[in-house]
Amino acid sequence: MPTLIKNKKIIVILLTVFLVLGFVLVAATPSAKAGFLDAITKPGEFVMNMLAWIAYGILTLFSKLVTLAAFLLKAVFDIEDKVGFTKVGVVTTGWTITRGLANMVIALILLIMSFDTILQINKFPIKTVLPRLIAVALLINFSLMFCGLIIDAAQILTRYFIDKAGGPSGDISAQLANGLSMANVFKTPTGLTEADKIQAAFGGGAPSLLSIFTSLVFGIVIILVAAFALAAGAIFMLIRMVKLWLLLITAPIAWVAMIAPGVSGLGGVSTKWWNQFFETTFFGPIYAFYIYLAVLTATAGGGIKGKMAVTASGTTSGVLDLIYPTNSFLADGIGSMLQYIVIIVILVYGIKSAQRAGLEGANAVIKRGTSMKNFGKDALSRWAARGAPLAPKFVAPALQKMGFERAARGWDKGMRVFGAPKRVLAPLASPDVWRKANIARKTRAEQRAFSEPSGAMQDILSIKGLKSLLTGKMPPDFYQTMERDKVVGARIGEINRGMPDENQRASAYLSATDPLEKEALIRSLGSTNSINTLFQEMFTKEMNARPELKAKAQELSQRQEEQTKSLGQRKEELEQKYQNGQVGRPGYLMAGNEIRAAQESLERNIQAEKEKTGITAIEEKYKLDPEKFQNLMAKEFGNQANRIGNDVQMAMTSNGNLSVTGTYQWDSAKNRIKATTEDERKGVAQGKFNEWEPQKFWTSAHPDSFFQSAPTINHKGEIEIKVTGLTGNGKVYLENMTGLHYGQVNRAQGRMLSKIVSKETQQAMARTLDAKLKPKYDELVKEAAKVLAPQIQKPPEKEKS
C-alpha cells in the first residue's frame, strides 16, 4: 500500500491511458461504435461495460505485438536468405583487408624464422612451425569459401524447418498467430448493438470485476510471454546474421593464430573464434526446429485446443472447463489456455536450447578438430603398440583353401620367425606406450614412496604415537601397516585379473624390486596355492644361469630314461618267454632279480652322479617346505616377514594346501606373530589333524598337503616336478590316521587318489619312509585303489558274432 500511495501519479496516468485507448479502439471500429454507445446508455451497467471495453482494447493492442513479433521473425529469416553471408559487400571487402594483413603476418613470420635459424636461437624451429605455417597460408586464402560451406549447410536445415513451419502459404507469422489464436480469443467484439453482446463476451451474464480482471491479467501475461519469445528469437537471429558477418571478416586473423598455439594468447584467439563461429552458425537450424515444433503443436490434428473444443450444444468436451466456466478469457475452453502455454514453452525453451546446443556443439567440433590434427600420429602410435601388424591372419587359411599347403606353412613359419621380434620391438616406437608406461611407473613409485611414510606420520600424530615419542619409544605402526595393506590389496586384485597364469606371476615376483610389488605378488601366489610354482621358477632361473649344469642334468636324465626303457624291454621279453615256456621258473626268477638289481644300480649311479655334480643340492634347495618358506619370507620382507608369511600360509590353508599349516603362530608372550620350529609345527599339525573330521580332511586336502615334490631336469631339458616323499606335515597326518580315516578315502579328490597310487609316488615312498610309516602308506594305497578300481577297469569286449 505505501508504494501505491507514493505512485499515485503513475496509477492515474496508466488509468487515463487505458481509458483513452479504449475510446480510440472503439472509435476505430465502426461496427462496434454503436454497440458501445448503446451499452454505456444503460444505467447500472455503465461502469462494468466500460471496464470490459477497456480490457478488450488492452488485450487487442497486446495481441498485435505477437503478430508483429512473428512478422519480425519471418522478416529476419527472409533477410538471411536474400542478403546471404559470404556475398555481402561489407563481408567481402572486410575479408579482403584481413586476408592481406594475415599474409603480411605470414611473411613476417617467415622473416623471423630465417633470422632465428641463422642465429640458432631456436625459438621458432622450422621442423615444427614451417609445416603449420604452410597449411595456414593455404587455408586463410580459402577461409571465406570454407566458412561459407559450413554456413550453407546450416542454412539448408534452417530453411527446411522454416518452410515446413510456414505451411501452404509460406507465412510463418500467420501460422504462429493462428496457433496462438490471436484472431479468436482476443478479437474486438463486433456488432454490439445491445448490452447482452458484451455480457455474452464475459460469460453470458453481466461483466463482473473478477471476470474482467482475470481476463486482463491472464491475457496480458500470456501474450507478453509469447511476444517476447518470438521477438527474442527474431533479435537473436538478427544478431546471429551480423555476428557471422564479423566472424567471416576476422577469419584470416583468427586462422593465423593457429600457427603458434603455444605462444601466450595466440592459441586462445583461434580456439575462441572457432567456438564463436560454430555456436553462432548452428543456433539458426536448432531454433528453427523449435519454431517448426511449436507450429506443429498448434496445427497438427487441430492442436491441443482442438482436442478440447466447444461442442455445438455449448458444452465442453473436457472436464477442465468446469473449473472456470464463466471466464471470458476461457471462452473457447481450457484448451486455448493450454495451447498457449505449450507453444510458448517450446519457443522459450528453443532459444535456450539453441544457445546451449550451439556452444556444446562448438566445443565438440573444436575438440574433434584438435584431435584430428594428431590423428595420423595417434593411429601410427597405436599400430606400433599392437606390434606393427602387417600380415592379416586370414592369409594362411586362404592359402590352404586354395590348395597351397606348402605356401601356408611357409607363411606361418615366416610370421613366427619375423613376427616375434617385431611384436617385441615395435611397441618401443610408440610414444603412447612410453607415456602410459611412465604414468603407471610413476603411480607405483608414488605409492611406494608415500604410502608407508604417510601411515607412519599418522601413527606419530596420534595420541598414542606422541606419548610413545615423549617416553623415548617407537610409535605403533597401525596406520603404517594399514596404508601398506591398502596399496597391496589393490595391487593383488590387479595382478589376479591381469596375470592369471601362475608361472607369469612367479616370474614377475623374481624380477620385481619394489617391496610392495613383491608382497602383492607373493600374496597373489598364495591365494591361488601357487607358492610351489615360485620355487620351481627359482630352480629354473638358477639352472638357466648354469647351462653346463643344466646340460649335465639333461644328460643324466636321458641316460636314465634310455636304460630304464631298455630294462623294461628286457623284462617284457622275459615275461613273454616265461609265458611261452621258453624259460623255466628258476631262470625266470633269476633273470627278474638281475633286472631289478640293474634298475636299482642305475638309480644309485644316477643319484651319485647328481650328488657329485651338485644337481641334487639344487633340487633339494627348491623343495617347498616350512623352513625354506620361512627363509624366503625373512630374506625378502625383513621385520614384516612373519606377518606376511602368516597371511600367505592362511591363504594356502584355505585353498586346501595343508603343507605349511603351523609355519607361523601367535606368540602371546611377545604379542606378535612368530615363525615356528619343527617340533612346534608337528604339534600344530597333529592338533589340527585331530580337530578335522576324516570326511572334511579328505574333501579339502590338496595333494601338496601330503607329497613333497622337487623340480628336476628331464631327458628333454624341460623342468619336471617329481614326488620325492611326504611333507613334514604329511608324515604327521599319516602317522595319526585311524581306520575311520582309511574308510573315508573315497571322499578324497581325484588328483589326490591318483597321486597316492601312482608308480612314481610308491617308488619314492619305498625309498624314504621308515618301517613305521611304510605299512600305513601301503594301507592307504590299497584303499585308494579300491576307489579307483571301477574307474580304471576296461569295458568288456563285445562277443564276436
Describe the structure concisely for a colleague.
By secondary structure, the chain is an all-alpha fold. The chain is 74% helix and 3% strand.
Helix and strand arrangement:
Layout: H1 2-6, H2 8-27, H3 30-40, H4 46-83, H5 89-119, H6 126-140, H7 143-166, H8 172-179, H9 182-185, H10 195-201, H11 209-249, H12 251-256, H13 266-281, H14 283-299, H15 303-307, H16 334-373, H17 375-385, H18 395-401, H19 405-425, H20 431-461, H21 463-470, H22 478-498, H23 502-511, H24 515-527, H25 531-545, H26 547-580, H27 585-613, H28 615-621, H29 626-637, H30 641-654, E1 664-667, E2 672-675, H31 678-691, H32 694-700, E3 707-713, E4 719-726, H33 728-735, H34 739-743, H35 750-757, H36 759-768, H37 774-792
Antiparallel strand pairs: 1-2, 3-4
Helix pairs in contact: 2-4, 4-8, 4-11, 5-6, 5-11, 7-8, 7-14, 8-14, 11-13, 11-16, 13-16, 14-16, 18-19, 20-21, 20-22, 22-24, 23-24, 23-25, 24-30, 26-27, 29-30, 31-33, 35-37
Features:
801 residues, mainly alpha, two-stranded antiparallel sheet, 37 helices, 4 strands, disordered N terminus, disordered C terminus
